[in-house]
Amino acid sequence: MSIGEQILKEAPDLGTGNEEWEENRRAFWRMHSELLAKGYEGKWVAVYQGRVVDSDVDRKALIKRVFAQYGVVPAYFQLVLKDGLREATIRTLGG
Predict the structure, then answer these.
(1) β pairing state of 76-79 and 51-56
(2) pLDDT at residue 32, rounded to an integer
(3) How far apart are CA 5 and CA 7, in angstroms?
(4) How many angstroms separate the CA atoms of 93 and 66, rounded?
(5) pTM of the model
(6) How confident is the model at residue 8 (pLDDT cuts 50, 70, 90)?
(7) Spatial separation of the C-alpha atoms in residues 50 and 43, rounded to whole Å
(8) How do beta strands 44-48 and 51-56 pair?
């Protein structure tokens, strides 16, 4: 099972209430292996209307460009990594 398939199996819907954003997120994970094969690893991609509409190594520049071209739309922005998602470190005060 690919990383994308595993993520979709474990979290098919994040419960955002925004079905278009959720569908763009699912489209990203369905395409994950293909994105790696096409050389997107290490780049941020924007998925809108079920397809990659732009990519960049600079997340902020990508978001700015996509919103300038399409308006503020429910695009899904994700860094393409071989192992799926980057591990997050959560720090707390006093700990």
Answers:
(1) unpaired
(2) 95
(3) 6
(4) 36
(5) 0.82
(6) confident
(7) 18
(8) antiparallel
